[in-house]
Amino acid sequence: MTDPRRRIPRTDAVLADPRVAAAADVVGKARVKDVVLAAQQRARAGEIGPDDVVDAVVAALPRSAASLRPVLNATGVVLHTNLGRAPLSGAARDALVTAAGTTDVELDLATGGRGRRGAGAMAALAEAVPDAGAVHVANNGAAALILAATALAAGREIVIARGEMVEIGDGFRLPELLESTGARLREVGTTNRVRVADYADAVGPDTGMILKVHPSNFVVQGFTSSVPAGELTELGVPVVADIGSGLLAPHPLLPDEPDATTELRSGVPLVTASGDKLLGGPQAGLLLGEASLVNRLRRHPLARALRVDKLTLAALEATLRGPVPPVRAMLEADVDALRARGRTVAAAVGGEAVDCVAQVGGGGAPGVDLPSAGVALPVEYAEALRAGEDPVVGRVEHGRCVLDLRSVLPDDDERLVAAVRAVASGMTAKRHRCRPVTATTLRCHEEGDPPS
Ligand SMILES: *Cc1c(COP(=O)(O)O)cnc(C)c1O
């Protein structure tokens, strides 16, 4: 009998398969070749038969030239930082794909002369916040803050309440961020309380600005007092309010969350916020306020280094002008509608429909519980679903894997069902025959069974 290894198809032959050739057009020939070599290696090691090489390659082909994968967020955390915060609306996705080519981001097509960069996005933002005399957009909320601190307080003092010296995540701390601009921090008040008089005592000739930071990821309860930014505008220095979440106007479901319009109406000259939190747009840092101040920041040399690209401008404008973005739809979804969806999904996948509690997350509305509903599955699903072909991230609660539907759009329910079913059939196969369905969902040999 001839050695079966001699029947392993040659690289050229595998690359000539139409499915493999099509993938090379999308992800590049080099990556496809790596996949082919790996499959041939497996065949040489006897893990797969020589006739299975092409199928193994097709199953393992990357679908995109980038490694980021689409993920279904069933965590119930609407703005999940590790999952990219706000998912963009269809309108915003279309806009950024259009802008990805050559586009008139800084050219006036009528005159052929230079136009204001991102004029459309700026106009949309100005219309959304009529109380702002001018607007500017930087790379993210932290960049907006850095720009303000550099332009207004480098080499001088920033007066800030001790209870607002927050860490925003992944070890980054606002005080350190602010000091990196060359400004010095002048802390006032205590962890739990601060008064207008504390600020007034600290303000002097060396004060560059007063900064109010919304503690967007924790709540201080009990014997507390803080000063609204609007009450600090008489102290003779610019007041900057970092509201964090990017709410442009008050939201009835989030009564304690600050919004740009209310801050500006109370007299605050400059508001900064993120674009990819409650606004539901792309990562961006919004600067909204008095025209003289905003234009000063806009013309500062650092503004050039913190400027946003055409993709962000396109997605931001479409978020502001287009239909309600996904984040708002998720936040406002009626709990009875979530329960009905939970029953449908549970019936389709054989889970149990449950009530649960969702969160805004991502540095917005800390301590706010959003009533929610979803599907409970055995706890093993949590890991298996993450490793699935179409990854789903749920949360483990009371020893079960809960898929919370508040952070899933209704249009994605069918996709969720399909993803769970695919994983479930893999788990059944493992239990009965121990046949790996895909390399990632199952690793039978880890369970002590020999691979088939
Ligand atoms: C999220 C947040 C930031 C940082 O904004 P990014 O857009 O993540 O850079 C700064 N301040 C507050 C209060 C925040 O909530």
TrEMBL record:
The keyword Transferase applies. The modification N6-(pyridoxal phosphate)lysine is found at K277. One of its GO terms (molecular function) is L-seryl-tRNA(Sec) selenium transferase activity. Residues 5-44 form the L-seryl-tRNA selenium transferase N-terminal domain. Its main location: cytoplasm. Belongs to the SelA family. NCBIfam families: selA. Converts seryl-tRNA(Sec) to selenocysteinyl-tRNA(Sec) required for selenoprotein biosynthesis. This is L-seryl-tRNA(Sec) selenium transferase. It comes from Actinomycetospora termitidis.
